[in-house]
Amino acid sequence: MVHINSNFQKLPGSYLFSEVARRVSVYAGAHPNSNIIRLGIGDVTRPLPDAVTAAMHQAVDEMGTAEGFHGYGPEQGYDFLRTAIALHDYQERGITIDPSEIFVSDGAKSDCGNIGDIFGPENIVAVCDPVYSVYLDTNVMAGRAGDYDPRTGKWSRIIYMPCTAENDFTPAIPREKADLIYLCFPSNPTGAAATAEQLREWVDYANANGAVILYDSAYEAFITTPGIPHSIFEIEGARTCAIEFRSFSKTAGFTGTRCAYTVIPKELERDGASLNALWNRRQCTKFNGVPYVVQRGAEAVYTPEGRRQVEANLAYYRGNAQVIREGLLAAGLTVSGGVDSPYIWAKTPGGLGSWKFFDLLLDQARVVTTPGAGFGPSGEGYIRLTAFGERGATREAVQRIRSVL
Question: Percentage of residues in the chain with pLDDT exceeding 90?
Answer without folding.
Answer: 96
